[in-house]
Design goal:
By secondary structure, the protein is of the alpha+beta class. It has helices spanning 21-38, 51-81, 134-147, 198-204, 252-259, 264-298, 305-321, 328-355, 362-376, 380-389, 392-412; strands spanning 2-9, 12-19, 91-96, 103-110, 124-129, 150-153, 163-171, 177-189, 212-218, 232-246, 414-419.
């Protein structure tokens, strides 16, 4: 086999392959023998047909199979000999397979770039330092109390802290109801984090059950529906029910319900430790973001366009799933630099893993799957088998490898601690 590999771009190679006629004929001969053993021809007992008969009956199929197999095998050999890691299917654009002549074919492959990462030790990063205060712990205690609040219907005007049930009919600019724009049985806590609008809450306070009122308000900026978030709305609202929320005090029964705590102080110590763990994890995540940014800044490698476009596709799909409406071409143009940085960072981390011999064993992958299975309420074996069959097992290994490399870089980094001021 003759092989020629030419660099057409940092992440692209042109491969020309030639297989001699003798090698083709040798493979055809062995395939003919295989056909003799496995094929049935009228007038011949199994395995007794001559080579010439086999060639007459199956010659075209045999040659097509041999050419196909030789192309696949020689292409794979070319990739292995040149240590090329393709990121997409090869684009074969020239094939000459005439009988009696060498098999010649050419194609282009897009591949991961070949490089060594430079200056990845001593990367700068900032670690935010959070202080857990008594107010933080009290806020968490109150959150637990709020989650266990009970509700009782009341016959009085609504006030902040009450649960209200509302029918909301949207109106046009002249006050005429918009057909198909009515929402029944909307339910939220007045003044709570899940309310539709702060100014709407203020207009509901003082209404009694059965009251109807025309209102103008603005949806919250972080409202779940992006088409309504922050927008002004005119509506007719009817208050159908008022329910008073009763938040439990911290009693012995309340503490036992949360986890067999003997005293409120025990609960507060546990909550303080949990808050600290979450803040430390957040700080670590921010350090890793900074390390990736610094790593990319020091290593401006070329990346395969296929990987960039693949990531942009995933980003756009997630964007749509979150309810956002956006022209795809505009989205890709706006987020191209983000995708380029992310792909570049992933390739750099992958290469550092090779340079530092950072390997993730199956045991670590299985441990991650076991935690996932426990949270999903399914068996480890079923989840593991599913992930292996769908290619997700190696994806988890890849994610764990990135985490391990980032932890390694963190150990080697020049990190500046920055206290986070309390609001």
């Amino acid at each position: 086999m003759k092989l020629e590999v030419t660099e057409t771009a940092p992440c692209s190679r042109r491969i020309n392959i030639e297989v001699e006629p003798d090698a083709i004929e040798e493979r055809i001969t062995s395939t003919v023998k295989e056909y003799r053993r496995t094929k049935t021809i009228p007038g011949f007992r199994p395995g007794k047909a001559t080579d010439s008969v086999i060639r007459r009956w199956f010659g075209k199929d045999i040659r097509a199979q041999v050419i196909r197999d030789l192309m696949e095998e020689s292409w794979q050999k070319a990739l292995e000999e040149n240590k090329l890691q393709p990121v997409d299917q090869a684009q074969i654009d020239s094939v000459n397979a005439e009988p009696g002549e060498p098999l010649r074919f050419s194609g282009t492959v897009e591949m991961k770039p070949q490089f060594d990462v430079q200056d990845y030790k001593g990367l700068p990063a900032i670690r935010p330092v959070h202080t857990v205060t008594e107010e933080d712990v009290t806020r968490q205690v109150n959150f637990l109390r709020e989650r266990r609040a009970t509700e009782t219907p009341v016959e009085r005007p609504a006030q902040n802290g009450d649960v209200v049930v509302i029918d909301l009919q949207e109106l046009d600019e002249t006050g005429v109801p918009l057909i198909g724009q009515k929402q029944d049985n909307l339910r939220w806590v007045l003044g709570g984090t899940g309310s539709v609008s702060k100014d709407l809450d203020e207009q509901i306070v003082g209404m009694a059950q059965g009251d109807t009122r025309n209102v103008t308000f603005h949806y919250r900026e972080d409202f779940y529906d992006p088409n309504r978030a922050g927008k002004e709305e005119k509506a007719s609202i009817t208050l159908k029910e008022v329910r008073e929320r009763i938040v439990p005090e911290i009693t012995e029964d309340f503490l036992k319900e949360l986890g067999e705590y003997a005293t409120e102080e025990d609960l507060r110590k546990d909550l303080e430790a949990d808050i600290k763990r979450r803040l430390d994890a957040l700080a670590k995540q921010q350090v890793h973001v900074g390390l990736k940014s610094a790593l990319v800044e020091r290593n401006q490698i070329e990346v395969p366009e296929t990987l960039v476009q693949r990531l942009l596709t995933r980003m756009f799909q997630q964007h749509k799933q979150q309810g956002h409406e956006h022209d795809e071409d505009e989205f890709r143009a706006e987020h191209r630099e983000d995708a380029l940085r992310e792909v570049r960072a992933s390739l750099l981390l992958e290469r550092i893993a090779a340079q530092e011999s950072i390997v993730v064993p199956d045991e670590d992958v299985d441990a991650r799957i076991a935690r996932m299975a426990a949270s999903m309420g399914t068996s480890v074996r079923n989840l593991r088998d599913y992930m292996i069959n769908n290619g997700q097992y190696e994806q988890i290994r890849y994610e764990l490898q990135e985490e391990a490399v980032l932890n390694f870089l963190e150990e080697q980094a020049a990190i500046e601690e920055s206290p986070v001021p309390k609001k």
